[in-house]
């Protein structure tokens, strides 16, 4: 499940994508911006020409009506004064439309990525972040660069004609003076784009620390451990490193640009002396001098802007290539076309080997395991044994390195990932607490269920799922019932928008309700679903899970062995492979069995402070039948 984002994208394709994006986002705003660019470029030429006419008429060299020329000059001035505001309006419309479209396309592509590798590779994460940043404004900046080049080109052609009429040599000199600047800026653009990788990596780390310091997640630990200053310093270290990179770029810009700028200014100064000499000698009129001065300023200014725009455009292209790589590279179109059928018989893991990357150790080393339809399997093992990894493989977030996972005999890789996932319901160990309303938090579990709008009553499925997860009354009693925001993070116009904070166990029930909404799926996986629940809730959840039994395969992962003991079969993962398998009773009878050892260990832990008779009742040396659940829970 790799994407093409690792490969470079040609500049032509990047430029074409930016243009398509701008065109697709708001055609009229783009056309208006283009039109204004041409008008804006023509304005100074017209103004310079009219000024020459006016001066020549006033000094007795002109042939035109002074008042008419003055009126035309004034009108041009008004137009040029107003134009930037209208232009800003159009560019604002265009920028916002492009940002919206770019964001939409980017996250469509991200959503279409079937695996998790995009989020776990730092290089790709940086690329995604760059894509997010550059997608917002780079297409418009590219269009603006192109407009500046167009505008400058237009001005150049107009004024170069005028300048050439006065002196072709001077026109050539002025144009040549800008070439070193062009070369310098292009080199600078490459250096800036290369430095961007370091900047984004640093900013990502800085954002991590600033989110910790400014958010609620770590607020308790930061205060208890007194680590606020440590984290703040780590954040500043990253910011300082980023600042150093940016400062080095600024210094380089200054040094690279100094000489070409001096060269261009020298040419302008020399030209001015030359023209003044000719006016004194009477071979040029004062009107000629005025148009010459305007031409030199505009040609140099225009060339400078065009060079800077080309250089910036080059830099934006390099950065925007990241956007194109993510938004258009996307995931390799999967070869799988088959839609997963409802499970009739069994899921078989056949000699499954998996590691997260070739340079990381194996997590699963030849796991072979069967989960039958209608059967409940308890999956146990110490921390890091690979239980959650196995769940992620069942969801096909990753592909196996060796072995197969068979769904009624068909390799999972033959199914489209979406159709496979549509047959599963999972409560992940690290489930998400969405900062949305209670109803939305549950309804998100099934795309077939309408996510209620604010103020809309939750559907009966949502309420039923909440009831089964034992959280209905809690949600119904919230200030705005199911419509209450489950966060204190947002502030709204009315009081209820400020939301509420649920307890950990209540959140777990909400997550369970979300999964129960799709309880009709073929495989129901619960990865540590009750770790935060009180004993009554645990018993209730166990009952609900048992009730899911008809025809449905269930995989229950828990460190509380009392929770899995009722499963039809218990599988102990150890060292990346299935070490023990059987019913609770069978495993407890295994001589020197690891499961029995863990189970007794939990029971002993529970009773370690108990007196002798109590320990006997609990049967720590051999837990009394019928009391194990109680003692190990
Ligand atoms: N995204 C990842 N990238 C690299 N290694 C990972 C990743 N996720 C998990 N691992 C590693 O895989 C191993 C198995 O992790 P896994 O989460 O599957 O264990 P687990 O049995 O569910 O543990 P626990 O009981 O603590 O939840 C661990 O060594 C972990 O460090």
Task: Chart the SSEs and their pairings.
Elements: H1 11-25, H2 27-58, H3 66-112, H4 117-120, H5 122-166, H6 168-177, H7 179-214, H8 219-225, H9 228-281, H10 286-329, E1 346-354, E2 364-372, E3 376-380, H11 387-394, E4 402-407, E5 410-411, H12 417-421, E6 424-427, H13 438-443, H14 460-468, H15 472-476, H16 504-516, E7 523-527, H17 535-547, E8 553-557, H18 561-564, E9 569-574, E10 577-582, H19 584-589, H20 594-607, H21 612-618, H22 628-632
Parallel strand pairs: 3-8, 3-9, 6-7, 7-8
Antiparallel strand pairs: 1-2, 1-4, 4-5, 9-10
Helix pairs in contact: 1-3, 1-5, 1-10, 2-3, 2-5, 2-10, 3-5, 3-10, 5-6, 5-7, 5-10, 6-9, 7-9, 7-10, 9-10, 14-16
This protein binds adenosine-5'-triphosphate.
Adenosine-5'-triphosphate is lined by residues 120, 356, 360, 363, 381, 383-389, 429.
Features:
ATP-binding, transmembrane helix, membrane, single chain, 22 helices, 633 residues, binds adenosine-5'-triphosphate, ABC1_TM_dom, elongated
Quick synopsis:
With 633 residues, this protein is α/β, with parallel strands linked by helices. The protein has helices at residues 11-25, 27-58, 66-112, 117-120, 122-166, 168-177, 179-214, 219-225, 228-281, 286-329, 387-394, 417-421, 438-443, 460-468, 472-476, 504-516, 535-547, 561-564, 584-589, 594-607, 612-618, 628-632, and strands spanning 346-354, 364-372, 376-380, 402-407, 410-411, 424-427, 523-527, 553-557, 569-574, 577-582.
